[in-house]
Amino acid sequence: MATRSANMKGFFKQKKNTKSTSSKKGSSKRSPTNASTVGSNVTQPPALISHGSIDLKDDHDQAEEVLRQFDMNMAYGPCLGMTRLSRWERAQKLGLNPPKEVEILLKGDRASSECLWDGRV
Amino acid sequence: MEIDAPPPPAAALQRKQSAYLSLDETFQIRKETYRGQQYSQIYFARLHMMRTLLYSLVPNLKPHVPVCTVLGLEGGKECIIVGTLYKHMKLKPTILDEYSKERSAVPLVKLHNFMHPDDHLVLEDESGRVKLSGSLFSPASYVTGVVVALHGKETDAGDFLVQDVLEAGLPSQLEFPLKSREDKYVVLVSGLNIGSSTCNPLQFQLLVDHITGHLGDEQEQGIAAEIVHVVIAGNSVEIPRGILNRQNLASKDLSTLSEPIKELDILLMQIAAGLPLDIMPGPNDPANFSLPQQPLNKCLFPGSSAYNTFKSCTNPHCFELDNIRFLGTSGQNIDDLDKYSEAKNKLEFMERTLKWRHLAPTAPNTLGCYPFADRDPFLIESCPHVYFVGNQDKYETQMLKGSEGQLVRLISIPKFCETGTAVVLNLKNLECHTLTFGTSV
Question: Taking CA atoms, what residue in A is nearest to B50?
Fold first, then answer.
């Protein structure tokens, strides 16, 4: 619910930040990947806006976006309660032909192993 | 004076043998962990496997009817939908009843069967669910968890009017080996309940003596020599659970608790010394509660497990003897079907599970089950030649014929402690007869 740039008020429609804060009772081992910063301008200094678009992506990058799309795809079944890799392997075993690039991303160790809703539901 | 010549020394009878192959691997849980898995995963695996199968069968049965998903239904258009059935039952006990305000209105009498005329069925797949209606589609024979294909159309009221039901039918069966021309028998027994006050230990001792050839004359021993395998299908002990409810367990109580198992071990040792023995856990045995039950621990049977003929198996149990496939459970799956649907006898429930290609469709809804994530181990891939269920009230048997020529011997094994009856199956022609021991004078 923070406006991204204070001096652009009124020019762009105020958009609600759709990411919720990370669960307070989550395990301490996991760092909050979806925390939102409220009210500060640190991440979005006005200089960056000058490139034309507002950077709404926060803490996740292109790779995470691909993995989230994999999580949401109903053809591979429910995503809650399983690690992404085991869900990919299950899809492979059942003959659903999941995209290879997801496997590469998951085995590359840069991406989060748990699904999108883990700790948030 | 002639003296009768002494009878010629009898040649020692040799027991027949058969080749045994265990197929319990799908039922074994190697790394059982409860990390908060949900049951939606097992339902997804079940729906996917069965739907792929039904999609391949449907074009042969109804070639010109289009197949669509639940969300893709268009009003008035005839089509086929595939999904999991959910039966909404008014009388089914739910945990929420404990919190309901009208607790006094709920009858305290525990029902054996939870059916009600108002029960209705709903078909569900990943996209949505639709209520089912139709006069020729009675909810009485179906339970939650069965995957079927339905032919019908959507009505104006928003529910799906069913014109025809397409079940998967019996799976394909490996050919029955005809080369075994000699009589070989398998003894199936269940519900020994050793340690219970109503159980007469003499009855089981008589059965053991008969199987091991210690009873009767030569002819009877010859019959016993043709028994090649014994399967005990659950509920072998009855542990006095009243003791566990007390505040403190004295050391005397500990020995009372382990008495039934020790007695069972001594009896099983006598059988294992002579021929191969399989023992399956049942609902009352010291094994885990949820299906598939894991094999009883070998430490419970210190005497019997010294023999390599003694095998502790899972419940459900699948094995092959001389290439004849056996599949059986200790009764939990059929008993649960009996609570939520109706049929003319237990054999009809067994026939339905084979036609639905699923051993325990009510798992995990009303029957406890381990939350598998990647597979559903209860799906029946290959049709067995013998399908048995233990711990039933009476002995029943039937030969079931499938549409592709499959032949299955269905056996309902009665509780031994109540009836004194064991079932003997002939491997040559899959014929069954009973062996009853009476001890009343």
Answer: A94
Are A81 and B127 in contact (CB < 8 Å)?
Answer: no
Instruction: Report d(CA A105, CA B208) in Å as an integer.
Output: 61
Assess if residue A77 is contained within a domain.
Answer: yes
Q: Are the Cβ atoms of B41 and A86 closer than 8 angstroms?
A: no
d(CA B83, CA B367): 20
Distance of CA B287 to the CA centre of its chain: 16
ipTM over 0.90: no
> Could you tell me if residue A46 is inside a domain?
no
Could you give the residue ranges of the DSSP H alpha helices within B297-433? 332-340, 346-355, 416-419
| Domains identified in chain A, total number | 1
- Residue B108: what pLDDT? 55
Q: What is the pLDDT of residues B42-90, one digit of tens each?
A: 999 999 999 999 999 999 988 889 999 998 888 889 999 999 999 999 8
Residue A100 lies in a domain: yes
Using CB atoms, which residue from A74, A75, A90 is nearest to B373? A90
Segments forming the whole domain that contains residue A78: 62-107
Distances in whole angstroms, Cα of residue B38 to Cα of each of A80, A118, B362, B431: 8, 13, 16, 43
Q: Is residue A31 part of a domain?
A: no
Give Cα separations from B56 to A102, B166, B169, B172, B402 (angstroms).
29, 12, 13, 14, 18
